[in-house]
Amino acid sequence: MAVQPSMSSQPPPPRTSTSKPSITSEPITLSNWYQHINWISTTLVIIVPIYGLFAIQYTPIHRLTLAWSLIYYFLTGFGITGGYHRLWSHRCYSARLPLRIFLAFVGAGAVQGSIRFWSSKHRAHHRWTDTHKDPYNALRGFFFSHLGWMIFKQDSRMIGRTDISDLDEDPVVVWQHKHFLETMLMAAWIFPMCVAGLLWGDWWGGLVYAGIMRACFVQQATFCVNSLAHYIGDQVFDDRRTPRDHWITALVTLGEGYHNFHHEFPSDYRNAISWHQYDPTKWFIYLLSKTTLASNLKRFRHNEIEKGRLQQQQKAVDIARSKLDWGTPLADLPVISWEEFQAEVEGGAALTSIAGVIHDVSAFVEEHPGGRALIKSALGKDATAVFNGGVYMHSNAAHNLLSTMRIGVLRGGQEVESWKLEASAKSKADGLMGDLRQRMTVTKDEAGAAEAA
């Protein structure tokens, strides 16, 4: 089932009156369905594999051909994951010319387009993830992100633009793009067929198993990065977009399954950062760095990676916390004076004051682990010291339970503050009375002077 595109994505740019309308703007009908099909892509990812499935019914498999098919599967798979993806799309490391030529050749054998084509689409996917400018937008449904974006034509004017000037400066990329058809035919079908044919005489088996079916499996594995990696797994570092981490996707895609990490830290040559996570592409790149073929392996700062992990964990904690009863927030409680508090208790309410907050413990008197007498002795009093170690140092659970019993905040904070207020008021009253008495007292000298007058 397709998911509606994100509401936050910007609307597509308006067409100019001179631009020719794309077939994609028209609904698919019985009369025009064939015009909506991208026949080149459909032939390479659907029709040829279907022919391969038909051919294997009449093609016995040689065990050396099977072994060669598995070996070439991993080589061409690495051409995509370690070459097209981590080297050229994200520049996660640097590769010398012999390695770049090898990766360009085996990458072409995966039958997924040229380096230039593949990388430009992938960079657009990262820049415009989950929007209408994303060429394989996961919000348009699993089928679209897996196969639909290749089978059906897309209006190229709607796909987000990216900078690929660095690719145009790489002679290997330029040559492979210019001669991709010949390179693909050689790397995908002719070369694996010749290996099996020349070495152990299995020409047709080499073409069917090491060529056609091997390419089909590499294609479907790679496509899972666009589809499966956006649907199953955990969002360990960010949940604002669809990419997810899952070991199953990693197994299928030669280590590309830790996709949430990858979208957050795309320039890191690793997809998996823990020792136990499956990422053969990372291991192969690391081994190559121990030779002269690969260098400048990029790793994102561990501190920033852990920040992202911790922030996502905090989000999960906040969501879980919001589902629990933590009592009425202090800011929402009424302010009650000590006198009002005392009056409520004298009226029969089971109230106690702890840390400046008045709690109604009436429903807990019978359940109090310390007995009714102890909790009743705190009614109408400031029980802060009693609760916090004066009689018993209550547990964290007791504090949490107490928070659900709040009914008000004591004006002045605690009972001692009320005493201060009373003492202050009494002191002021005594001062006023003393001053008044002093003013009303007549000295002997003043009395004598009055009589003389």
TrEMBL record:
It comes from the Eukaryota. Keywords: Electron transport, Fatty acid biosynthesis, Fatty acid metabolism, Heme, Iron, Lipid biosynthesis, Lipid metabolism, Membrane, Metal-binding, Oxidoreductase, Transmembrane, Transmembrane helix, Transport. Its cofactor is Fe(2+). Expected to bind 2 Fe(2+) ions per subunit. It catalyses: octadecanoyl-CoA + 2 Fe(II)-[cytochrome b5] + O2 + 2 H(+) = (9Z)-octadecenoyl-CoA + 2 Fe(III)-[cytochrome b5] + 2 H2O. This is Acyl-CoA desaturase. It is a multi-pass membrane protein. The keyword DNA-binding does not apply. Residues 333-411 form the Cytochrome b5 heme-binding domain. Pfam families: Cyt-b5, FA_desaturase. The keyword Cytoplasm does not apply. Belongs to the fatty acid desaturase type 1 family. Its EC number is 1.14.19.1. CDD domains: Delta9-FADS-like. SUPFAM superfamilies: Cytochrome b5-like heme/steroid binding domain. InterPro entries: Acyl-CoA_deSatase_haem/ster-bd, Acyl-CoA_DS, Cyt_B5-like_heme/steroid-bd, Cyt_B5-like_heme/steroid_sf, Cyt_B5_heme-BS, FA_desaturase_dom, FADS-1_CS. Residues 1-23 are annotated as: Disordered. It is found in: Membrane. The chain crosses the membrane at residues 36-54, 66-85, 97-118, 186-212. It comes from Periconia digitata. One of its GO terms (cellular component) is endoplasmic reticulum membrane. Coiled coil: none annotated.
